[in-house]
UniProtKB/TrEMBL annotation:
Cited Gene3D superfamilies: MutL, C-terminal domain, dimerisation subdomain, MutL, C-terminal domain, regulatory subdomain
PANTHER family assigned to the protein according to its UniProt record, in alphabetical order: DNA MISMATCH REPAIR PROTEIN MLH, PMS, MUTL (PTHR10073), DNA MISMATCH REPAIR PROTEIN MLH3 (PTHR10073:SF47)
SMART domains membership: MutL_C
Source organism superkingdom: Eukaryota
Name listed for the protein in its UniProt record: MutL C-terminal dimerisation domain-containing protein
Entry-linked InterPro entries: MutL/Mlh/Pms-like (IPR038973), MutL_C (IPR014790), MutL_C_dimsub (IPR042120), MutL_C_regsub (IPR042121), MutL_C_sf (IPR037198)
TM ranges: none
Residues annotated as domain MutL C-terminal dimerisation: 36-186
Length: 186
């Protein structure tokens, strides 16, 4: 790539070209080798990352290291998101080593009317629904109706927040929409 930098019009171009020619993808080994150098402007962490393949993180010289600025706010948000996702799942007792969405019991169970086609699809996908935090039983009268006894825990947390603020219940519309989405996916 040839660029005339003497004209002053390419001041920011050198960095862009370097980024295009030498893009960095951070591997887990690189992240594990990260050493915090200092905080910058109370917003960023200046870190050294070992960019050499196969070298140990404990190497004393700094040749081959990258100086990286990490946005503290973005890093904190990422940690919070990962913790939230981890807390949203529980071990599946029906499948060793598998996880499913954490659920909460609703008493009395929600009565939801559905179309015949939706009922058929929901019957055939009951194990999938359980992984999504839903426990569904079907009407014994043959009516196109089902009863939801468990919902994802996050739905109950949303319901608690709404009720605490003096707002109307949202659990039934949320569950109906969630079930509708599952039938559309099938």
């Amino acid at each position: 790539v040839g660029v005339d930098i003497s004209s002053g019009q390419a001041d920011g171009l050198a960095v862009k070209i370097h980024s295009i020619l030498f893009p960095y993808r951070f591997s887990k080994n690189m992240i594990h080798s990260m050493k915090v150098v200092n905080q910058v402007d109370k917003k960023f962490l200046a870190c050294l990352i070992n960019a050499r393949d196969g070298d140990s993180a404990a190497q004393i010289d700094t040749e081959g290291n990258l100086l990286v600025l990490v946005d503290q706010h973005a890093a904190h948000e990422r940690v919070r998101l990962e913790n939230l996702v981890e807390d949203s799942y529980e071990d599946d007792p029906d499948a060793a080593g598998a996880k499913r969405l954490s659920s909460s019991t609703i008493l009395p169970p929600l009565e939801i009317s559905v179309a015949e086609e939706e009922l058929r699809l929901l019957r055939s996908s009951q194990p999938h629904l359980k992984n999504l935090g839903l426990e569904v039983t079907f009407s014994k009268t043959g009516a196109p109706q089902l009863f939801v006894g468990k919902v994802p825990l996050c739905f109950m947390e949303k319901e608690s927040n709404e009720l605490r603020r003096g707002r109307p219940s949202v659990i039934k519309p949320i569950v109906e929409e969630y079930l509708r989405e599952q039938t559309e996916v099938k």
